[in-house]
Amino acid sequence: YAEIREVVSSRDRIMKELNAASNRIQRWLKIYFPEYLTVYKKFDTTTGMMILEKAPLPDMVKALGADHIVKIWRQQKVRGKGASLNRAKTLVDAAHDSVGKPGGQGAVMEIQMLLEDYKVKKQQLEMVTSVMEELTMQIPNADKMLSVNGIGLVTVAGFISEVGDISRFKNPKQIQKYAGFELVENSSGKHKGRTTISKRGRKIIYQVVLPLIRINQEFGSIYDYYRKRIKNPLKGRQAMIAVGCKLIRVFFAIMTKGVVFNGTKMIEDIHRPTQLPQAA
Q: Which residue(s) pair with 196 in the sheet?
C-alpha cells in the first residue's frame, strides 16, 4: 500500500509537469505559428509532432512543401487520413497565411527543447502508470473495482493509496469520514452556517464523481434522483457527495466481499416516487 501511495504521488507530479510542458508548447505555437492549432486540435498528434520537430516555423513548413511533408510521414511508416496529401496541403496553406511572430534560431531551439521535455514526461508517465497498474492489481479484488463502468485504473489506484488496507475499516462510513467525503457544517453555538464540503472531499468529487455520473448510467440516475426528488431535493454539490458516498459503499462491498459490480442491484435501495412533479 505504501508503494502504491508513492507511485500515485509520482504520477500526480509527472502529470502536473506534463501539463505544464504542454502549456508552454501551446504558448510558443500561439506566438510563432497560431494556425498550427487550427490544423491540429491536439498539438501532439503523431503527424503534427513529426513536422514540429523538423520545421516548427511557418517559413520552414512552406520551404518543405506538401510533397516533402508527406514523404516525411511515409518514411516513418505513418498512414491514414492524418498523413494524407490533403492534410499536408492544409498545413502548408496555414503556414502561408500565418500571422505569427517571425522567429529565428532561438525560437527553433526553444521549441525543440520544449518538445524534448514533453516527450520525456510522456515516457515517464507511461512507465509510472505501468508500475502503478502492476502494484494495484496485486491488491485483492482491485481488478473487480474496474467492473464499474466509468472507473479506471487511476481511480482505483488513487482510492487504494488513500484508504490503504480495507480491513482497517468496519464499515464504509468510516472511509467516507477518513476521505473527507462528508458534509461539514460551519456551526458556532446556536448559529448554524452554510453546509460545505471538506477540501479533500471536493478534490475527490470533481476528479471522480463528475465524469462518473456522465458515463455511468446507474450513477447518473442516482444523481438525477437526488436532484429531482419531491422531498428534500439536493443541490448539485450535495447530490455529488451523495453519489460519492454511494461509490465508496460500492468499493467497500467489492473489496471486502469480492463481488462484481451490479448496477441494477445498486439502485434497488433508492426509493423513487412514482411520479415527479410536472415542470411549470
A: 184
Q: 20-59, pLDDT tens digit by residue?
A: 999 999 999 999 999 999 999 899 999 999 999 999 999 9
Does the pTM surpass 0.85? The reply is: no
Give the DSSP letter of residue 234.
P
Which residues neighbour 172 within 8 Å (Cβ) at sequence distance 6 or greater? Answer: 245, 248, 249, 251, 252, 253
Per DSSP, 180 falls in state T
* Pairwise CA distance, residues 169 & 163, whole Å: 9
Query: What are 15-21's contacts with CB under 8 Å, separation 24+?
Result: 15/125, 17/121, 18/118, 18/121, 18/122, 18/125, 21/114, 21/117, 21/118, 21/121
- Domain segments of the chain as ranges: 2-134, 142-269
Question: Which one-letter DSSP state was computed for residue 105?
Answer: H
- pLDDT tens digits, residue range 82-106? 889 999 999 999 999 999 999 999 9
Instruction: Please give the Cα distance from 162 to 30 (Å, whole number).
Output: 39
Instruction: Take residue 83 and report the three cell numbers written for it.
Output: 498523413
3-state secondary structure of 220: helix
Three-class DSSP category at 187:
strand
Beta-strand pair 191-197/183-188: antiparallel
Distance, in Å, from the CA atom of 113 to the CA atom of 132, rounded to the nearest integer, reads 28
Would you give the DSSP letter of residue 103? -
Q: How far does CA 58 lie from the centroid of its chain? A: 32
Where do the DSSP E strands lie in the chain?
Answer: 183-188, 191-197
Cβ-contact 147, 160 below 8 angstroms: no
Set of cell numbers at residue 257: 466481499
Domain 2-134 has CATH 3.40.190.10: no
Per the listing, cell 504558448 goes with 27
Quick one: how far is CA 100 from the chain centroid?
A: 31
Residue 62 identity (one-letter amino acid): K
